[in-house]
């Protein structure tokens, strides 16, 4: 692991609260050649924070359903719902007690079916979060597993004896692995049964033992439950962690301080992914398998695509951690193109999600967030938007004394303001987290009424993408450009676009050969006119 990657993955342990760095239409039938998820733009919804309709201050599935028209208006193709399963919420839903139900705080199964039907009727695909590596410690499986060593479910989780002591009576965890979200040992001692259980995250999130065929079967069944209801695929939480060497060997001492979840890379996972893929392929339509692979090397991430039998898409978080610098982005993009391109794996791009400070916050200005939107939506691969980035939302300021999340990630999970004025369209209760800054102006209704807003920029970009085979599926060629400018060409048959991103805070002359007009500009300037050969400070353009 490089120095850089080690630094990033240490951050995975606990992100500091302080700021980092500075109309769909149609139906959901397959369109033919390329699978839908290659040209799609996926919109991530964190249900707790999207929209509340029952006045308890926590978003719900009915809020998502009522928000569908916003997504259609915006022009995305699919939504990914972060977990809404029953959960004690120690990790806000990533600690599941029942994979085949809806937590009453979010609604009901019937409500989910309504949401799914309404999304499909609008041409939107629906992807569910699925959490295979661990359950909640309140899941009946774990309750049974920890009840006694003789429990029929004992071997559904990873139990081990103490490591041999250093001559004393002190109990030592079985290996040197550290957990994420707190950084303590990845093992908790169970007094009743006198053994340790493994948890790569909180002690309240025990790891399932995927070497046990009964676990594999049970988890496959949970996928079938939702596939039978018609979902279009899954975003699989830390799926790179499910395959483990039963010997659970120590990490080399130099890596032992980094949470194991940010470096675990075991070939056994690939075999398990093949099994998951076979479950999805047993269903008609193109059900998609999107894996969260928290590894900080593109070459490692690439392996999880398998040979057409692994993940369809894998998150690659290195670019998310790239600073707002042309050189850094040029290098990250080149690495993705070379590594994934060589094996025919389709890339993904993500700038913001519920685990990291929003890129509007990281990059420090709306100008940059706008230029970054142009980049995100024109690179070759499937882009993931995080609800609220289309409003240019910044993270909420959540004082550490009021923080709720054990990983310090509350800021980017602030509720989405729908309207101006108290409640912002969420009814009377104050929401579970504070509103993001400037919510009166950065709300959906106000920004829709302002054609110059960042919301309209996202919409224009999505429309341009949808209308251009080159942007959706075309080839990518990096172009020579003046320092500070990233330039590339996308091309498919007779359709082509040029994309120019000025990372510098000054105007830069950037002439191009041939006659091109500005299709989309990050600040709206010059759209519909000939490109005049100069980029404004931190301006990005799509040329056609
Ligand atoms: C990754 C999820 O995105 C994060 O929110 C969660 O805390 C961990 N996996 C554990 O499930």
Describe the overall structure.
- This protein is of the alpha/beta class.
- The chain has 2 domains: 2-16 and 38-136 and 213-466, TIM Barrel, CATH 3.20.20; 470-543, Immunoglobulin-like, CATH 2.60.40.
- Helix content is 27%, strand content 14%.
- It is built from 16 helices and 18 strands.
- The protein has helices at 3-11, 36-39, 47-50, 61-66, 68-74, 109-121, 140-147, 213-229, 268-281, 298-303, 326-342, 359-363, 366-376, 444-448, 454-467, 469-473, and strands spanning 42-45, 78-81, 125-130, 159-160, 187-190, 195-198, 233-236, 288-291, 313-314, 348-350, 382-386, 475-479, 485-492, 495-502, 508-509, 518-521, 534-535, 540-543.
- The strands form 4 sheets. The protein has an 8-stranded parallel beta sheet.
- 1-deoxynojirimycin (NOJ) is lined by residues 91, 94, 131, 201, 237-238, 292, 354-355.
CATH homologous group name of the largest domain: Glycosidases
Characterize the quaternary organization of these chains: single chain
CATH fold-level topology of the largest domain: TIM Barrel
The first-level CATH class of the largest domain is given as Alpha Beta
Classification by helices and strands: alpha/beta
The end-to-end span amounts to 41 Å
* Chain-averaged pLDDT: 93
Strand content: 5-15%
Say which molecules are bound, naming each kind only once: 1-deoxynojirimycin
- The number of distinct β-strands equals 18
Rg calc? 23 Å
